[in-house]
Write a structure and sequence with these properties.
By secondary structure, the chain is mostly helical. Helices cover 71% and strands 0% of the residues.
């Protein structure tokens, strides 16, 4: 198998894995309607939480994360010929994982199974980043929940987590002298992911600025006790 076939097949598998419209499949098969016709109109886990409940929201969230993790980890380790990684990716498996990870996120956002209008890619990006940089995604995960618990806004937590990714890596590498393999490639990729998250959340940002964004009061745990 030559490089073009190896890489093309892996990219297509990753893209199609990310493109699986989990929320749409579950809402149609279990509840008889398309989740995109209710709530925010998005097929992601946040809207599923809101419309179908916590159990189904968690299920969609986990599956969407696995859509990013499984192809990135297993294809890079067990499918692509190591000689291809050595000869075409400088022997660095991270380069391969970044390519496949990008494919999963693009697949979720531009899913051909739902007219190229998919979700926002947060859970799928999280899954693929667990395979690539578990430390930085852990920091982003903490930031996400701190923001959600402080404000009740899932969208704001997602945006903040996306921005935390490159910032975390930047601080680790430049201020704590942590040797990050393939640092410049990863940091550029993280900045790209952060910009992609901002782009897919542009409607949420507008609602946040207007003060009309949907809030999960049940997750707003750190409420101010000051009276207005």
């Amino acid at each position: 198998m030559n490089i073009s076939i190896d890489i093309i097949i892996s990219f297509l598998i990753s893209f199609l894995s990310g493109a699986i419209p989990t929320g749409v499949i579950i809402s149609k098969s279990v509840f008889g309607f398309d989740i995109r016709t209710k709530g925010s109109g998005n097929m992601g886990s946040t809207n599923v939480f809101r419309i179908l409940g916590r159990k189904w929201g968690i299920l969609v969230q986990v599956i969407d994360m696995l859509k990013g993790f499984i192809p990135v980890y297993f294809l890079s380790h067990y499918f692509i010929d190591p000689e291809i990684i050595t000869n075409s990716f400088s022997g660095n498996i991270v380069n391969v994982q970044l390519v496949l990870g990008l494919a999963t996120v693009l697949g979720h956002i531009f899913s051909p199974f739902v007219g190229f209008k998919g979700g926002k890619g947060i859970n799928t990006a999280t899954g693929m980043l667990v395979a690539i940089s578990p430390f930085d995604i852990s920091i982003a995960f903490i930031v996400f929940w701190l923001i959600v618990f402080s404000t009740g806004y899932i969208s704001l937590g997602s945006i903040s987590a996306g921005l935390a990714l490159p910032i975390s890596l930047l601080i680790r590498h430049n201020f704590f002298d942590y040797n990050v393999q393939n640092y410049f490639t990863i940091i550029y990729f993280f900045f790209f992911i952060a910009c992609l998250i901002l782009f897919t959340h542009k409607s949420n940002i507008k609602r946040l600025l207007k003060g009309v964004e949907n809030k999960f009061d049940s997750l707003h745990l750190f409420k101010s006790k000051a009276k207005s």
